[in-house]
Every structure is written in structure tokens, then in C-alpha cells.
Amino acid sequence: MKTLNAVASMAVLFVVSASQGTGQVLPGPNGPVEFIGLQEWDAQELFDAIRELEPDRPFHACAAVMKRSLGFADAAAFLYFTGNIDSIDQSSDRYTVVVGVEDSTQVLYRTTGNETVDLPESWQNLLAVANEDFNVLPLAASTLHSRDIGGELAKYMGVDSETLDQVWDLVDRADGDEDIRLAHEVLARDSLWTARAVATLLLGNFIDDDTAWHGLVGSAIDTDGRVNTVAQRALDGLVEQGTHSVDWSAAHGPLLALFGGTNPFAFEGILEVLVATEIDPEFGQQLVRDRPSLLLAYVGA
Asked: What confidence score (pLDDT) does residue 73 get?
């Protein structure tokens, strides 16, 4: 599995050993459930608490109840299965991974601005799309550099392919120096999630600029899940298409937050990005020394 390869690569790169944080696996209603990152909670205790609160909720959708009702600072859950996604049903064999972050001091989402930045017409048109059908944005972000597969994915996801083409066209018009400057300004100052989501999408135009990568990682810890979803899909798409070396030193703050457990849905993908962009080993080791727990938990799983 690619994500596990990324964890292994990071462990080797940064000389990490599984000295703490072993995963705990329990039988679940639709296959094994593995718990990663637990400190005070026992896996069985957490499993029972989730089942008591939400007996009908699929286990891969338990992150919300962990944060809302069980006191977790952050949480994520992932569903893995073999076979074709078109044939999966409730009887399919599944493997669920639940990540729990208990230390609230390590969960540091980006501070949201309180302004409304003036935007050009092409940006305004993208904001309108975001308001009307948000699902177009993460799809456009993930396929911005692989548009040949966009139409097929649009059909599968129920996204209008003409709208996707329209978004790509609008993105193509926003590829100048003023656009990347404006994207960073919006991410720093704008209160509208739609503006920040569009700014995040447009950073995908500037993959040769390290600051665009830094901005995408910053958006991965945006307080709005729609914005950080666009960031994650954009980064996934860039890794799939091949990357170049990136100097990550200016993104120390967002990376430290991610390593600390902020938005654990993004953690494995961020590891892939760092490996693919040849993060400086010394800088990576510094991140692990400062925030070791989550990576160690994955290594020990």
C-alpha cells in the first residue's frame, strides 16, 4: 500500500524505530478495526464507547463522534478493502484504521482571516462554482495535471463534466504572478471558505514555485474541511504526476502542526508529499524530534 510505503520511507529517512505507539486491532462489525495513536484511551474501551453512542454508524465514519462526544482533540478514520470499488457492499471484507489525537496542545489549525479580499472576475466565477457544487473543486484539484482521467472520475463521482471543464478553463486563466500573490493573500486574510478553497486550487498552477507547495500544506490545516480537502486532493494529484525537490524550511509551522496530529486525515498524504519532494533529511529529523508521537504510532502499527 502506497501510504504504508510512505510511512516506511519516512521511518528509514529519519531513523525512526517503533519504540512506542503500537497499533491495537479489534474485530469489528465488517472486518478488523485498528486504533492508532491512543494514549489514555484503551482500544476496547474506545470501541465500546463509539458503538454505544453511534451503534448504526459505519466505523470508518467515527471521527466526528470521537471529537464531538469523546473528548478527542482530533481524529480520523480510513476504510481499506480489496477488489473493485464498484462491487463493494456491506458484506465486503474491510479493514478500518482509526487515528485518535488526544493532546489538544498539538492540534493547531490555521488562524482564519477576518477580511474579504477583492477578487478578479475569473476568481469570482470559481467562487460561484464552489457555492453551487463544491465537489467539482477537489476533483479539479486532483486532476489539474492529469485531465485525461478527469472525465471518467467526474462520471463516477456524479460531477458534471462540463462544469469541470469550465473550472479548468478558469484555473488556466489565473496563472500569472499576480494570481499567486493573490492566492497567498487570500489564504492569510480572507474569511470566506470559498475564497480560500479557490486560492488553494489555484496554487496548483505554480508547482515550480516552492511557496505554492507551502501554501497547499498550510491549507491542509485550514479550519474548514472543504478547504483542507481541496489541499489534500491537490497534493495527491501532484504526487501522482511526479514532483521536484522542494525546500520545506519555510513551511515549518504547518508541517509541525500536521506531525502533531492536526487534521490526521492528511497525515499519510503529507508523508507521501515529503518523500516525493525529497525533503531535507536534517529538516525532517527536526520535525520528528519536535513532534514524534504520531509518526511513531504509525511505525508501530
From this structure: 98
Helices (H), the chain: 2-13, 43-53, 63-69, 121-132, 136-142, 150-157, 161-173, 177-189, 193-203, 210-219, 225-241, 252-260, 267-276, 281-290, 293-300
Verify that 92 and 195 share a domain, yes or no.
no
pLDDT of 2 = 46
Stretches where the chain sits below pLDDT 50 are 1-3, 17-19, 21
Residue type, 56: D
Considering the domain architecture, whether residues 97 and 130 belong to the same structural domain is answered as no
pLDDT given at position 59: 86
Residue 41 sits at the vertex; the CA angle it makes with 262 and 23, to the nearest 5 degrees, is 75
pTM over 0.85: yes
How far is Cα 16 from Cα 14, in angstroms, rounded to an integer? 6
**What are the backbone angles phi and psi of residue 22, rounded to the nearest 5°?**
-75, 145
Looking at residue 58, what is its pLDDT? 86
**For the chain, what is the radius of gyration of the CA atoms?**
19
Count CB-CB contacts under 10 A for residue 209. Answer: 14
Residue 244 has what pLDDT?
A: 87
Can you give the residue range of the structural domain that contains 184?
121-260
pLDDT at 92: 63
Kindly state whether residues 252 and 139 are assigned to the same domain. Answer: yes
Between CA 221 and CA 266 the distance in angstroms is 9
If we measure between CA atoms, which residue out of 301, 197, 278, 224 comes closest to residue 13?
A: 278
The single-letter code of the amino acid at 40 is E
